[in-house]
Amino acid sequence: MQAIMETLFDVVYLSTVIILGFQMILKGKDKYVKLFGYMSVLLGAGDSFHLVPRAYGLLTTGLEANAAALGIGKFITSITMTIFYVILYKIWQVRFNKTKEETKLLTLTIYLLALVRIILCFFPGNNWLNYNAPISWGIYRNIPFAIMGIIMIYIMYKEAKVHNDKDYIYMAIAVFLSFAFYVPVVLWGTTIRIVGMLMIPKTLAYVWIVLIGYRYFRKNS
């Protein structure tokens, strides 16, 4: 039952964000909407590298028997999610008309954190192909990622309050929730398998972000 329900959820999730993303890319009239589209397609495409092998494992020989495919997928997803936040940062810049000079230091910080996160993902210590990969490296590579998330929550909420922009208050909440659900998985997901279920509400938080962009697209198209 878990295998069927989880697979159906993943199919609906991946199909939704990719379809909505392509709509925004192809029909969006401005850079803001198209960036949302690129981000949405990247989210779905990146997560598919992990979720498709996971669905296959659940429906066939089990997750542990497909550890290599799952590990490679998780590695790819870790990189695409990092780029996801870089694009989300660009979206924030466009939304609030932030100039390059105005955000020079902040942009450098975001790019540097993203680079460090990606480099950490390539270290052999991650042991991606092992089903019981070390928790320590899961923590190491997620430290710069978490800092990126904290920065995004802060700047989105700050600008939202200044401009009375409800969309970005909701977006800040969505990013906060995504990390709130993700952190326990990083810390205890390997030893307490039921904790992995938190990836579902974490995924829904990302869908919420996509829907905020899609709602803007539909309203202004």
Describe this structure in words.
This protein is 79% helix and 0% strand. The protein is mainly α. 29% of the residues are buried.
Record field, number of beta strands: 0
The helix content is: over 70%
Radius of gyration: 18 Å
Unreliable runs: none
Give a short account of the largest sheet: none
Question: Into which percentage range does the β-strand content fall?
Answer: under 5%
Task: Determine the number of helices (DSSP H or I, runs of at least 4 residues).
Answer: 7
Secondary-structure-based class equals: mainly alpha
Order of secondary-structure elements: HHHHHHH
From the N-terminal CA to the C-terminal CA, the straight-line distance is 41 Å
Mean pLDDT: 93
Global geometry:
globular
Write out key terms for the chains shown.
221 residues; mainly alpha
Write the layout of secondary structure elements.
Layout: H1 2-27, H2 31-59, H3 67-95, H4 104-121, H5 135-163, H6 166-188, H7 199-219
Summarize the structure.
The chain is mostly helical and 221 residues long. It has helices spanning 2-27, 31-59, 67-95, 104-121, 135-163, 166-188, 199-219. The protein contains 7 helices and no strands.
